[in-house]
Amino acid sequence: MVKILVIHGPNLNLLGKRETDIYGKTDLQTINGKISKRAESLKASVEFHQSNHEGDIVEMIGKAAKKFDAIVINPAAYTHTSVAIRDAVSAVDTPVIEVHLSNIYAREEFRQKSLISPVAKGTICGFGTDSYLLGIEAAVSMAGKK
Amino acid sequence: MVKILVIHGPNLNLLGKRETDIYGKTDLQTINGKISKRAESLKASVEFHQSNHEGDIVEMIGKAAKKFDAIVINPAAYTHTSVAIRDAVSAVDTPVIEVHLSNIYAREEFRQKSLISPVAKGTICGFGTDSYLLGIEAAVSMAGKK
Amino acid sequence: MVKILVIHGPNLNLLGKRETDIYGKTDLQTINGKISKRAESLKASVEFHQSNHEGDIVEMIGKAAKKFDAIVINPAAYTHTSVAIRDAVSAVDTPVIEVHLSNIYAREEFRQKSLISPVAKGTICGFGTDSYLLGIEAAVSMAGKK
Amino acid sequence: MVKILVIHGPNLNLLGKRETDIYGKTDLQTINGKISKRAESLKASVEFHQSNHEGDIVEMIGKAAKKFDAIVINPAAYTHTSVAIRDAVSAVDTPVIEVHLSNIYAREEFRQKSLISPVAKGTICGFGTDSYLLGIEAAVSMAGKK
Amino acid sequence: MVKILVIHGPNLNLLGKRETDIYGKTDLQTINGKISKRAESLKASVEFHQSNHEGDIVEMIGKAAKKFDAIVINPAAYTHTSVAIRDAVSAVDTPVIEVHLSNIYAREEFRQKSLISPVAKGTICGFGTDSYLLGIEAAVSMAGKK
Amino acid sequence: MVKILVIHGPNLNLLGKRETDIYGKTDLQTINGKISKRAESLKASVEFHQSNHEGDIVEMIGKAAKKFDAIVINPAAYTHTSVAIRDAVSAVDTPVIEVHLSNIYAREEFRQKSLISPVAKGTICGFGTDSYLLGIEAAVSMAGKK
Amino acid sequence: MVKILVIHGPNLNLLGKRETDIYGKTDLQTINGKISKRAESLKASVEFHQSNHEGDIVEMIGKAAKKFDAIVINPAAYTHTSVAIRDAVSAVDTPVIEVHLSNIYAREEFRQKSLISPVAKGTICGFGTDSYLLGIEAAVSMAGKK
Amino acid sequence: MVKILVIHGPNLNLLGKRETDIYGKTDLQTINGKISKRAESLKASVEFHQSNHEGDIVEMIGKAAKKFDAIVINPAAYTHTSVAIRDAVSAVDTPVIEVHLSNIYAREEFRQKSLISPVAKGTICGFGTDSYLLGIEAAVSMAGKK
Amino acid sequence: MVKILVIHGPNLNLLGKRETDIYGKTDLQTINGKISKRAESLKASVEFHQSNHEGDIVEMIGKAAKKFDAIVINPAAYTHTSVAIRDAVSAVDTPVIEVHLSNIYAREEFRQKSLISPVAKGTICGFGTDSYLLGIEAAVSMAGKK
Amino acid sequence: MVKILVIHGPNLNLLGKRETDIYGKTDLQTINGKISKRAESLKASVEFHQSNHEGDIVEMIGKAAKKFDAIVINPAAYTHTSVAIRDAVSAVDTPVIEVHLSNIYAREEFRQKSLISPVAKGTICGFGTDSYLLGIEAAVSMAGKK
Amino acid sequence: MVKILVIHGPNLNLLGKRETDIYGKTDLQTINGKISKRAESLKASVEFHQSNHEGDIVEMIGKAAKKFDAIVINPAAYTHTSVAIRDAVSAVDTPVIEVHLSNIYAREEFRQKSLISPVAKGTICGFGTDSYLLGIEAAVSMAGKK
Amino acid sequence: MVKILVIHGPNLNLLGKRETDIYGKTDLQTINGKISKRAESLKASVEFHQSNHEGDIVEMIGKAAKKFDAIVINPAAYTHTSVAIRDAVSAVDTPVIEVHLSNIYAREEFRQKSLISPVAKGTICGFGTDSYLLGIEAAVSMAGKK
């Protein structure tokens, strides 16, 4: 059974409440529910963490290496500013899949550059909640190829 | 039944033969076979086109609007240089999913900027053949939401 | 009688159907009709070509030198990416007038730079169908001054 | 009857005397004569102002809104430096047509960027005196569409 | 016997007629004649293709791998804009020699950057027709070292 | 009693009439009325000047030094282009407070850079008419600290 | 009664001790005292938080929406680096006023760009402790207009 | 007898009073006195104008062509922002000598770029009042060579 | 006896386990042991802290001023992104020595710019564990010169 | 008989010993031998100089004009930094051919810009020792055309 | 008696022979003669040095401090590339006057930036031989003010 | 016994005399004395060279490979401009340690980029004379690890 860690970055706890024209009206709990269901259908287990702290996310990734077969991460705002998370991703062998709800390439200039993408296994963005579900599919597949 | 057009951009006819350290050893025919199988499992039909001509791809997209429910495109080299393909994507209502075999954000500077991404529905890259398979999943889902 | 070649670049065959808020609701046939009428009123003849292929446009210009007194071109997407069309324009003595339906200077950053303008006789943009009509007037006048 | 204000920017009073290889040998009075004649043929009236003062031009535009149906402006040097004129153009509903005698895109780098173009209705450049005449045609047409 | 493919890019069919101050007065047929003669003297055979289409050139290179021992290419305008041709060059093992008639480093800023050079075996430019002849010499030598 | 000079830059005479979605519907006279009232409540006197001329504003500042204890200036378009006004501000000891009705950092790229801010005492922007009222408060306080 | 949250960013706990030539000799407690007094005079209540942690500030803003009518924030160093705080500000409807003790536009290049300003209601900087007091005035006024 | 026009740009009327660490303690009248004396010793006559208005300076130069043999100009702040003055300088045959009191290359980045220098005969800067005196020497010499 | 605080930044807890080709195979505990030994030989005492949290490091520095004579810091990923740590370093009088295991100038572009270096006493990088040992030597020497 | 000067720039004396993966294992003496042989076969004489001093190379070129019919230069490191050598090349009428052993366009960013190329007759790079041999061929041909 | 050192940079020994359209037809000896004469008329003595070696010029400046009251230098090509000469100029108290024959601001982009200007006393350029003569005048005046 | 070559770059012969606020009051001889003493205490021998000539330094490094176990170099001004010295450092296997007296990252923009650092073993800067002493320590340690 593939074990997947899903990390939600800063402000994602506000999902469904803030800027719904960009991020949609589904809240984080509902998204997690859908993710669990998809994981289950793929015979995978999944654990969720949301944090607004860069340092926490760095630590989650550092510790995940031993416990999980793959990581699905939506680094949110830290996508564009965190070398520390990038270094954590580089440091672990576990495949890391980067996902985004919105199409970051259709937004402000500074959001079109991800510090994480170059060290992630791959990137999925722009499909709303489906970005996470596709991320789970990718995670299961990549974990199998590790 | 969801009808999907899959467009392969320039040089992808050489797949499996060239630069196998970057693009893998699977050739285009094999990839198309896997795509068909995945599409079938999702109750979708799929049609394939490969072209090395920017103008051909512009025309395929322009005509696809009437015949297909979604387009999955790997624009390859034209990703980084073609405003004409971008404009074609903008011109159609059909959801367009951009896929890449390799992680373009881990390669040369000029490959890290996609002219297509800002107008595509979403982007999937870095998962090898799986990028196409996830693209088919996304296409089916997006076609349903149109 | 002044002989004018009118070249329509990529995606202009979709005119009136796509992004009507930017390009208007008039289709290419209707525009060509208006152009013919204006040309006629100025005692000029006009021939039309639309192509989505950069290479075709390069060839049209190369061959036009012998047959036409002036060229009116809307290079559309190739405005911003084609050195080949630029070189073709430089290569012919026939005056070339660049036109655009929309005001390209009021759009995305990359659309505000034309590779064609520096080698064209002059540029007209932002007046919708009128850009072509003014282009015909300019063509007749410039052909007379050659 | 369409009422048009024609504004000539800085140094245009020296026309026909200075840098005749770039700007031609026709002086401003002669140009104004040709403009009047073309306007007349289109059943339009025209009023001329030349100023070397940015502030004067700002004021002319601000006041023109009530008296004129369209403005044809050659902002000359202020094309590249005046946010104040740009703001004045934005502030009025009257359509503003920007014209240039020379092809500014074929000259120094700093002349290839117009601060006025993005807020003008449209731009015509490179046709010498004809740029103004085409501008009058555009003005009459645009005034009719307002 | 070394077999060499010589590819002439866009607008080179106009050679000897256009911009003779930059490209000289020799036409393409004459150049090909000189190339053949030089090849012959080096015991090499040579085949010529000229195309204005990016996609055609991509295909020529892709197919050349099996039939030729070396490629001499003057990508002309596509030198500065074609990632597709660059990728084709990367995809083949055949040594590719890039040549230019004019000294591209003494011309416009945008012509001083070649997308092809970094993946070509080597580059020769600025010697007029001699660039091709030196290219044939290089091709024969490089083919021998493959 | 603190004496304050309030300078309104170019196009502010059109306030309440132009682009009311950005600048609001209040006209300059009404704003001046509110400013006077706030000044009065703070035991300060206030004098108003509006000019569309860069040179006039330079001179106002140069002469203000002797007559006023503080200057509140909304340089409008000249914010982004006038080194002359910047130099005038540097030249006087009187504290200068820069105010803007709109949030200039939420607008076009070129409006996000103020040439005046680095030499002003401080900057207040984005609060509509309140920007001026807060500016008066700051002026009274800064004049007291001079 | 208007309820205001005042957030002090990183290193502001050292105020009055460090770099007193830039930030003044008043310590944070004294500033808070002055803020309280001003708030009181405006019939407003105020609550203070200082944090050196980006994640803490993100959370304060996320939670403030329900409890406060306005936020006055001095993001200090995070002004220039935190997309996470920017996103938190965007996510809440509560008006956010950005303040700075020093004139950030008169300092190092990297301090002249605020990531927060474009999404704040408005910005006040350069007036020392008065920046906070003017911020409170703005907060009360903006809360009334919400 | 050589006739020289000396133009002092914006804020130079404040000389000797403002920022004396940069511009020195000599006022404009004293400088003009020294210039007159030096001119006299070289058998030249001199006329002075100071203006804070860009448009005025444009006009002075335009008119000077007929009356003066050389122009010595300190464009002050307009050095860095005025294309209009640059164009006026280009428009006249009279040799124009650019002078600066301070060493503009040792000051802020934006002061290190002069729009006037490329079209002036030559530039002299950094010598305080002596910059003007050397400018007069240059003017007399250049007028002789015209 | 000189008291030194050694701060290890984010991900350094993974040392010896991750990317050993860049950072070596020695783990943090072993490095700390060597540092202690070198400190001892120089009659200095040393205290260690590792944190993945930017805010924690800001606070460590803020508090260190009273307890330590010098700080040796390897800011790791925060080197390139943290203005907050930079400000903390500026805020304290205690000499701060910046060290790096790898040669950051031989790595990715973004790693070649340190936000900390301009405010540190000095920088040592590229010597592996020796960077820390040299840092301790520098700390003892600098503390003596304070 | 054509007389050619061959100039080898800095560090080329170390050839065959240093970085053999980039520059090959052939030492300078061997290369010179091959050059002599090729020159001889073309009825040309050749003289060699190697220098690590920019000034020496400047002088060699300045003096070569009288003695040699052509210069073949590998400016090595000075390619990217020496305006002095560029000026020397511009100053002489003798045709100068620039050669490089390695493909400089496939190396570090700063090596992809040659200060010499724009003023050289032509450039040959990437063919190892063959670059020199082709350079001799070019020299003989160009000398004949002078 | 004021003692002046005149330093001529690289390639100036070729003066009068090379690129006479830019640098004039006067050779260095003649220029030195004119300089001596002007110096004499100002009661100053002068010593000349020309070098093509950056290091020589660095040493001349370093040693000049004791023997000369002022230095007039035309750094030629080293103007744009030599930090070493810049540092030598900074290191001496002797006033250094930078001169150029041509107007460097009217030439290639890279010639418009002088590394020497920011540390020189002042700069004179564009007046041909007169640049040196004005430089001598400036040197005498500055030496008197030291 | 470890044999170390210490190279002092341009202008360092003036140490202790020039710009003592930046470089301190210690002259080069005194520094060499301290270096010798430190080397001796580490059982190492040391040889000193100072040169103002880029070419000399290139040669010293090229020859050092055979005679020395390590090089400590302060390239001074050449740090920022010399690709030739960089290439010499790359060419030798001997470990090269780069040192600077001042903190180059706290100085002018152009001094913050070292061309040498990416190819040096490591860098030490900002500690005054101690930079050299730490450099000797590093040299001894690195020589041992070669």
Topology (SSEs and partners):
The structure is a homododecamer of 146-residue chains.
Chain A: E1 2-8, H1 20-23, H2 28-41, E2 44-50, H3 54-67, E3 70-74, H4 83-91, E4 96-100, E5 122-125, H5 129-145
Parallel strand pairs in A: 1-2, 1-3, 3-4, 4-5
Quick structural gist:
With 146 residues, chain A is an alpha/beta fold.
CATH fold-level assignment of chain A: Rossmann fold
Rounded average pLDDT of chain A: 95
Order of helices and strands of chain A: EHHEHEHEEH
* Ends distance of chain A: 14 Å
Q: Structural class of the secondary elements of chain A? A: alpha/beta
Strand fraction band of chain A?
15-25%
Biggest interface reads: A-B, 23 and 23 residues
Across the major sheet of chain A, the strand order is 2-1-3-4-5
Name the CATH architecture of chain A. Answer: 3-Layer(aba) Sandwich
Give the overall form of chain A. Answer: globular
Instruction: List segments of chain A where confidence is low: pLDDT < 50 over at least 5 consecutive residues.
Output: none
Measured as a percent range, the helix fraction of chain A is 25-40%
Describe the structure.
- Twelve copies of one chain form a homododecamer.
- With 146 residues, chain A is of the alpha/beta class.
- Chain A has a single domain (2-145), classed as Dehydroquinase, class II (Rossmann fold), CATH 3.40.50.
- In chain A, 40% of the residues lie in helices and 19% in strands.
- Chain A is built from five helices and five strands.
- Chain A has a five-stranded parallel β-sheet with strand order 2-1-3-4-5, sandwiched between helices.
- In chain A, helix 4 links the parallel strand 3 and strand 4.
- In chain A, helix 2 runs parallel beside helix 5 (129-145).
- The two termini of chain A are 14 Å apart.
- The model of chain A has no long low-confidence stretch (mean pLDDT 95).
- The C-D interface holds C 103, 105-106, 112, 114, 117-127, 130-131, 134, 137-138, 141-142 and D 103, 105-106, 114, 117-127, 130-131, 134, 137-138, 141-142.
